[in-house]
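Lecture 7 notes: from sequence to structure.

We start with a single chain of 468 residues. Read the sequence below before looking at the structure.
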Amino acid sequence: MVMEPPSTLTFEADQRMSKQVKGLMLCRIIILTLLLAIALLFQISEKKYFFISLTNHFYYFISVFYLVTIIYAVALRKIRDVRRFMLIQIIVDHLFITGLIYFTGGSESFFPIAFIFSIIGTSIIFYKRGAFSSASLSTFLYGLLLLLQLHGWIKPLGHSLSYETSQIFYTLIVYMAAFYIVAFLSSTISEELKKKKRELIQKQEDYNQLETFNRNIIQSLDSGLLTIDLNGKINFFNRTAEKILNLNGEGGKDLSIYDLFPRINDMIQATSKRKGQDVPLDYQRYETLFTNSSGKKIHLGFSISPLTNPEGGSIGHTLIFQDITKFKEMEEEMKRVDKMAAVGLLAAGMAHEIRNPLASLSGSIQMLKSELILDESQKHLMDITLRESERLNALITDFLLFAHPPQTHKMPWEISKLLQETIHLLSHSPAFHDGIRITYLPPQEQIKVRIDADQMKQVFWNLLMNAA
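Now the structure, written as tokens:
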């Protein structure tokens, strides 16, 4: 498993938190605007029972927090520690809500409910730990405000002079319970959303990896692959198809398959008719001669298969093809070789047929030469005839050796013995005369080699004859 470097993970976390900071500021602006609108409506209607005492301090307070939010937005571009910046905003929000409660009646204010929005926002960003920390801070600030109010150390604006201690404690307990209940519920939901988000991200990563894997497989095929819709328009092709057909990148997707293969419609129709049938592969493969845009002619072998959607409906066809030009050339070469082999066999048979009457002819001429009384001119003609017959017989022998090379019979033989036999035969040959002297120096040790004796004698004979 490949782990991302910490710097990358930190950067992604900061990016995520930066978006959350912007979302928090946007929600703050919306809530402030709603509070301002509600205040104006109630002031216009003079229903002051909603805010116990609605003075200009409320508007000043809202205006100041608008300004603070604008400062947040400007400072966000220069802040490096986004997490700490968000914590500061959350604490300031709690202090702002506490001040709002003070300006709107303290224990009799309606705005302790604003702590709930802050708790929910904190749980979304910092999950369970942040939610309960926010609930604790809200309880502390609201309890401190009520305690100061109870002992008369502060007097909230619009506060009634007559109140009961039990009522203040009851209010504190109710809101404290509400804070922690909201913290529990919102953090549970946030944790679940976090879990689902991680699962979704993991599934997305798995899907991307699978998509990349499949794409790499398709692009790595040594066969061309392209898909067409029901109208014959090309909507995908891999690199091999682009290379074989000489397609122009994305521009190739604007082409119709009928522009490339004008006669392919009959093949597609035949494939559609065989859909669902158990047809051997040989009957699904076609061959055609294709001329690409550069004018090069290519032999293609290809197969066509239907392309269906998950419901089984036809949405087009898939073509898989290969450049079989070299195979076609090899096939033609094999045919040519077969023809040459057949001609060779025929020629060998003819050579045998020629050799037999040639031997009879040569023998007859030798008999006539020995029995008849010939003058010099006739003897000369007889010699020419015999010599040419021997030359023709030698040519036929060489041809037969080439057409039907003899099988070798390799056995261990002593080289010196074969050489002595060859020298003995040569010394009694008509080609040997008094001007030739052969000096043979036998080796001190016997040398045995696994060879064909007849062929080795022929080698020695040829060497000695060339030397003579």
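The longest strand covers residues 297-308. Keep this in mind for problem set 3.
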